[in-house]
Amino acid sequence: MRIVGTPEESLLAKMSSEEAQNYIRAQPKMEKKNFKDVFKGASSDAINLLERMLELDADKRPTATEALAHPYLAQYADPTDEPTAEPYDESFEEKELSVEKWKSLVYEEVQEFKSRLVKDDVS
């Protein structure tokens, strides 16, 4: 928030965690910094992409596909050779689970990921 500023009340209202809302409201109000001053020497395309990607409101942030199509990344992007993925599912973040259950779920996710890696290496 030191760089992007304190979120507007409309963004806080989107947050499901009352604790997160209260924490942010308890912080001193911070104004958004001028990215040209913070990232001196960066090109205007780099500044534009940074401002868009560091947007606190996820609904306003570019998707990975949009970010890869940004002029700053044009020299690296190849639309015919870009992997695709399902949109990030953040619904789990609202679940009220014990620490032990969270640990178990993270462990299961890591194991599943590792098994997919092994399958990909074999094929």
TrEMBL record:
Enzyme Commission (EC) number: 2.7.11.24
UniProt keyword Kinase present: yes
Top-level taxon of origin: Eukaryota
UniProt keyword annotation of Kinase present: yes
PANTHER family on file: MITOGEN-ACTIVATED PROTEIN KINASE
The family this protein is said to belong to: Belongs to the protein kinase superfamily. CMGC Ser/Thr protein kinase family. MAP kinase subfamily.
Name of the featured protein: mitogen-activated protein kinase
Organism: Limulus polyphemus (Atlantic horseshoe crab)
Species lineage: Eukaryota, Metazoa, Ecdysozoa, Arthropoda, Chelicerata
